[in-house]
Amino acid sequence: MFRSLLSRRLLPLRKFRLFSSQTEGELRISSILKDKFPTAESIQVADISGGCGAMYEIHITSEDFKGKRTVMQHRMVNEALAEEVKEMHGLRIHTVTPEKSST
Q1: What is the pLDDT of residues 30-39, one digit of tens each?
Q2: Is 51 left (phi over 0), alpha (psi -120 to 50) or beta?
Q3: Measured distance CA(102)–CA(94) in Å, rounded
Q4: Could you tell me whether strands 90-96 and 55-61 are parallel, antiparallel, or unpaired per DSSP bridges?
Q5: For a Cys-Cys bond, which of 30, 41, 76, 87 suits 61, CB 3.0-4.6 Å?
Q6: Residues whose CB falls within 8 Å of the CB of residue 76, separated by 6 or more in sequence, listed in order
Q7: Collapsing DSSP states into helix, strand and coil, what is residue 100?
Q8: Nearest-CA neighbor of 45 among 101, 92, 96?
Q9: What dihedral angle (degrees, nearest 10) is formed by the CA atoms of 35, 37, 40, 45?
Q10: How sure is the predictor about 5, in pLDDT bands with cuts at 50, 70 and 90?
Q11: What are phi and psi of 55, to 5 degrees?
């Protein structure tokens, strides 16, 4: 079924883990972001490097981003993860305010 969804392009083309537990890196990054954005409605972190911790995708929905341009929102996330970013190959950041996430 999973392959058929990919072949029909119903799922984006990226690596998916087929298990639900988070990696140590995902848990560490989630914890840091929860401390930095305590009022966030949603914080999702996924290791998209195949489990080696070299690349992560982050989705955050927070009022902290209200009135800020996307580049500033991403800068806020990068600053929160300054030490962790040094060890990464790449980072995909998706930020949104609660109002925009419901539209």
Answers
A1: 999 999 999 9
A2: left
A3: 15
A4: parallel
A5: 41
A6: 36, 64, 65, 68, 95
A7: helix
A8: 92
A9: -70
A10: very low
A11: -145, 135
State whether the Cα torsion 23-95-85-40 is positive or negative: negative
| Mean pLDDT of all residues in 20-28 | 85
pLDDT class for 22, splitting at 50, 70, 90? confident
Instruction: Answer yes or no: pTM beyond 0.70.
Output: yes
Distance CA 63, CA 67 (A): 9
Q: Contact 60/37 with Cβ under 8 angstroms? A: yes
Please provide the size of the chain in residues.
103
